[in-house]
Amino acid sequence: MAIQGLCPKCGKRVLHVNVENTVGVVEGNSKARCLCFTCIHCNTVLGVQIDQRSKPRPRKKDDVPG
Ligand SMILES: [Zn+2]
Q: Which one is predicted more confidently, 54 or 43?
């Protein structure tokens, strides 16, 4: 299947994307690892999603946050 997607900024076909690790923040607290997809030509963010590969942080009663 040919790739038809175009970058909304530079208009080039999105044959490749940079994948960057980023962190989802909810009300100032880091909540989840996310993946950020950016255009390799102009670095425009094309999308962000939760990193499904990452495991949630272990929730122990004695786990001190920070
Ligand atoms: Zn672009």
A: 43
Contacts of 50 (CB under 8 A, 6+ apart): 24, 32, 33, 34, 35
Domains in the chain, number? 1
pTM of the model: 0.71
65 Cα–ligand 1 center, Å? 39
Residue 7 Cα, ligand 1 centroid: separation in angstroms?
5
The answer to whether residues 23 and 48 touch, using CB atoms and an 8 Å cutoff, is no
Find the domain containing 32 and state its range: 17-50
Q: How many A from CA of 3 to the centre of ligand 1?
A: 15
In a domain, 22, yes or no: yes
